[in-house]
Design goal:
single chain, about 400 residues, alpha/beta, Four Helix Bundle (Hemerythrin (Met), subunit A), 2 domains, 5-stranded parallel sheet, 4-stranded antiparallel sheet, globular
């Protein structure tokens, strides 16, 4: 599976700063010090309804992570998956009377177009669950050999008790985990499981549903969590720098994935930092496909909204915050874009070197994009009120907005 084209990232004078970011597992800020190549895995979409603003906010957050690292002169090895076979996708295809493969391809194509328009830097490896199945099967077989997996009516489950570190990603107690498991794709009430929280590794073939040859596992398809583990281990290895996604993935997805990987390899932790973006609401409720309260990037683009304004709307909220999409949020972003473009269109302006350092400092401090926007606002206001004599300043500001914030002026 291919990703989308990369936009050029302008080089800036000076050197970026190491990233301090909130780690869900420890509950505090950690300073990441990757080697020459920073490694990041971000969980991708289930392609049945893309790309809504919740998606866009999440991928914007991890695009900023990449940009901070690139500014430190590191390379970035970014991996993202596509869950192109899963119950929600199959249910949507059946509801709409369409082929599930065609639906997945259509929505994945739309997602790529949206990511390109928003100037999100693409992953080096963009891997679908279906194409990962040959690598998933041996991992499930290995977990069974280790005594960490068991069969129940043809399905294969992972035993969470096989990992002594289980629960350390989300920090939740068993009762909270059980509730979230039921809400987020688990089956805690299924009779016969060793532990209600045990997640499925391999689902035996069901009539009328797609299935693949699983060798000793029989025909079936992979569980959600083992999919990402197989892809991450194959392309990044253990103890990569950042495992990212929306806050609703901390449990069960990232918790279970970490346990799978840790039992498989005998190493700990799977990732140095578990980083989670907040949820976006509309009309007082979390934006979600099940509720149908979605604002789509593609719809806004069709209505003539500049993608740079959409990006500024996302950047105006801290990535970890839960916030609400409103018409006013978009209007504010459009007005900001107009001010910025007017400011950099002049032949000269106030010196901008300190502004670049302000943006760097803000983003290195847990991706504080609102503080970075405020710094550019101050420069634009000074340009409007007083002007300046530095003929290189507008170009510096334009390149900094592009390189560090992904906003093309």
């Amino acid at each position: 599976m291919h990703a989308w084209p990369a936009s050029e990232v302008p080089a800036l004078p000076g050197q970026g700063r190491d990233l301090r970011i909130h780690d869900t597992a420890t509950g505090g800020l950690v300073t990441l010090d990757p080697g020459p190549v920073a490694r990041i895995y971000v969980c991708g979409i289930t392609p049945y309804d893309a790309t809504h603003m919740g998606h866009a906010a999440t991928y914007n957050a991890f695009d900023l992570v990449q940009r901070v690292w690139l500014d430190t002169k590191r390379q970035v090895h970014y991996v993202q998956n596509v869950t192109d076979v899963d119950d929600p996708l199959l249910e949507r295809a059946e509801r709409d009377g369409v082929d599930w493969v065609a639906l997945a391809e259509k929505e994945t194509t739309l997602f790529r177009e949206d990511m390109t328009a928003l100037r999100m830097l693409p992953p080096r490896h963009y891997i679908g669950a279906v194409e990962a199945i040959p690598g998933i099967v041996p991992l499930v077989e290995r977990l069974r050999e280790l005594g960490a997996a068991y069969e129940l009516e043809g399905d294969i489950y992972f035993s969470v008790e096989s990992d002594p570190h289980f629960g350390e990603v989300s920090g939740l107690d068993a009762a909270a985990m059980r509730l979230l498991s039921a809400e987020r794709g688990g089956d805690p009430d299924r009779p016969g499981k060793k532990n209600p929280l045990d997640p499925m590794l391999w689902m035996a073939a069901r009539e009328g549903e797609p299935s693949w040859d699983g060798g000793s596992l029989g025909r079936g398809r992979p569980g959600w969590h083992i999919e990402c583990v197989a892809i991450a281990l194959d392309h990044l290895g253990m103890t990569f720098d950042v495992q990212g996604g929306g806050s609703d993935l901390a449990f069960p997805h990232h918790e279970m994935g970490a346990s799978h990987a840790q039992v498989l390899t005998g190493e700990f932790p799977m990732a140095k930092a578990y980083v989670h973006a907040g949820m976006v609401a509309l009309d007082g409720e979390k934006m979600s496909k099940s509720k149908g309260n979605l604002v789509f990037v593609s719809r806004l683009r069709q209505d003539g909204v500049d993608p740079a304004a959409i990006r500024l709307a996302l950047l105006s909220h801290h990535y970890r915050a839960d916030w609400e999409w409103t018409d006013q949020v978009l209007r504010d972003a459009q007005e900001r874009l107009t001010r910025w473009r007017a400011a950099v269109s002049r032949p000269d302006g106030p010196p901008a070197e300190s502004l670049v350092e302000e943006i760097r400092e803000a983003l290195s401090n847990d991706l504080d994009a609102p503080a970075a926007l405020a710094a550019v606002d101050r420069w634009a206001a000074l340009q409007q009120d007083q002007g300046g004599t530095d003929t290189g300043a507008p170009g510096v500001v334009s390149r900094a907005a592009d390189a560090l914030l992904g906003v093309a002026l």
